[in-house]
Amino acid sequence: MQNIIDQFNIYVDLAIEAQELIRGTADREVEGVVEDVKELENIKINTITITNQMASQTMGKPVGTYVTIESPPLKINDPYVKEEIIQAMGESMNKLTTGRLQAGDTVLLVGLGNWRATADSLGPKFIQYSPITRHYHQYAPQALVEGMRPTCGIAPGVLGITGLETFEVVKGIVNNINPAMLVVVDALAAQNVNRIGSTIQMSNTGIQPGAGVGNARHSLTEEDLGIPVIAIGCPTIVSAAIIADQAIRKFCLKTGAMYDEVKSMATIKDILSFYGGGLGVTPKEIDEIIENSARIIAMGVATSLFPGISQEQLELYAV
């Protein structure tokens, strides 16, 4: 797996997959990485904390905490499972933001991605389903439920549509409205098809838009923006090179044929050369996966930002 990732310059978005890759190639735990796993009725919560720079370099991830919520039924609109995931997200966000957010602080929500491409529209959909309240505080405070903080949201689009770098847009807004925190949601790339629509990653390390599909832009981090950045994502695509390599390996294993890594790589490169060497694959149910995931993530974030307020009330303030 590591070889094909290196050969095709594939960026590993999920911290849990980065750790699995290291375990597979080095057959060891990573010094400076602390893992905690909690299993509930329908979901598994994996918390990975990278504690130092050496571990950061090994993992290819910034120092910080990464919470991964896994639930195969996530892509199915099951109200019971949905509620469990929302509560787990709310609790995880509270841990990631401990001491960084006070009651009444303004929070800026950013939905990254291309609203014209379904597999990349998770971020804009997240904004659509999130409670937006900052304008009520300014113009109609009587319309707010008591205890609601100011939130504002933007889906800045992508450079090819707007001609603007995401960082330029977000930095300008941060400088003007001075939010206390940034919550960024984006679609991610996975290294396993089973993780599409079944995994949510949350971290306090910021995000590099477009990294998963080889189109990395300027990072959105606390260092660059001056405020804490919570990054949330859900895998929606897998590299075709990864799928092809896994299929070849499995075929060889089942038939007893000898796996030739050099020939396998060359064949995959030859086929994918028509697409410039990179091709992302997404399932036909991606519309439903995006819809369900966006709603769940929006309510999971809202549960943390608006404690004590029901989901029915929060949904009234969605744009």
Descriptors:
13 helices; 9 strands; 319 residues; alpha/beta
The unreliable regions are none
User: How many helical stretches?
Assistant: 13
What is the CATH T-level topology? Rossmann fold
Taken from the alpha-carbon principal axes, the silhouette is: globular
Classified by CATH, the class is Alpha Beta
Helix content: 40-55%
User: Structural class of the secondary elements?
Assistant: alpha/beta
Corresponding CATH superfamily: HybD-like
DSSP E strands, number: 9
Mean pLDDT: 89
Question: What percent strand?
Answer: 15-25%
CATH architecture: 3-Layer(aba) Sandwich
End-to-end separation? 42 Å
* Rg, nearest Å: 20 Å
Q: What is the H/E string?
A: HHEEHEHEHHEHHEEHEHHEHH
Kindly give the count of domains: 1
Sheet having the most strands: 9 strands, mixed
Describe this structure in words.
By secondary structure, this protein is an alpha/beta fold. A hairpin with a 4-residue loop joins β1 and β2. The chain is globular and about 70 Å long. The chain has 13 helices and 9 strands. The protein has one domain: Rossmann fold (3-Layer(aba) Sandwich), CATH 3.40.50.
